[in-house]
Design brief:
Mean pLDDT: 94
Distance between the termini: 65 Å
Number of helices: 6
Length: 331
Amino acid sequence: MTSGAAAGARLGLLTVVDDIAIFGPGDAEIIIRIQPGDTVQVDNSGYLAAQTYHRHQVPETTEFPVWDQFRNPDGSPIYPQRPLVLGPLFAAGASGTVQTGRFEGRMIVVASLLDREALPWQADWYRTKVHQHLGDATDEHFRLWFTDNALHGDDELQESPTHTVSYLGTLHQALRDLSRWVEEGVAPPPSTSYEVVDGQVIVPGDAAQRRGIQPVVTLSVDGGLRADVARGDEVTFCATGQVPEAAGAIVTVEWDFDGAGLFHVADPVDVADKVSVERRYRFGETGTYFPTVRMAAHREGDRTSPYARVQNLARVRVVVSEPERARTPSE
């Protein structure tokens, strides 16, 4: 605030809807003092600085190789460094301590490959800490399952349903498997296979190689990942889904063609560990579309249960234009 009774105060601005400003958590007394005609300065410099703050927080330890990209060949930081390293403080604030990987029971970690708050490589970092403690016995105590196309929040309804899936089904199944592992000694499916390249967790495109419990879903349109067609032309979508070994069967196949995220179109499929479906479609309006297929797997192949349904999806691009007008002889 730059004028009026609240001059000098700072408030967090979440968003503006039409002529309504929505503030984040803050001092209600400051908001009450704001009057029509008061002037403000909108400043997002703190937000912008946070986008690259990690470059100025290079740990002195070498146990975080993802920071090596911000080091010179001699190991020194490329960029100026801030005096306070925030990472350990955030970790301790979220869980009460900085994780050590030292435990004697059994554990299944569920991590999301599109997580924006807890980055996927951090789950790999924890796995390395567990391995330092348990060594060759790691697989007797620990699993790490990545969920592709999933975010951080445990929400069933996604903010962008044609981009992401909920990881709740993976979490449900992990709890069931952990219970059987601890109480009955039944080992769960193996950890997801992956590699970390420049801080990015990369998983194989084949379900048998990827492992874990999430189905791998692929989609093509007219044989590729993109189709350029005229309005009203028929296009052919081919979708496949396969679950890793011992991870159940595909029970649902759903489609979204217009980007609404409602998935109102469903294909009946035989419950199986691998399914392939083909669907033809015509777009009645011009524009760029991202048709999406979403599949769900269930350990017991139960079509009706809303629980432990492990989802994944795939998308393609379709660009629809007006049909070319046929030329008349005079043209």
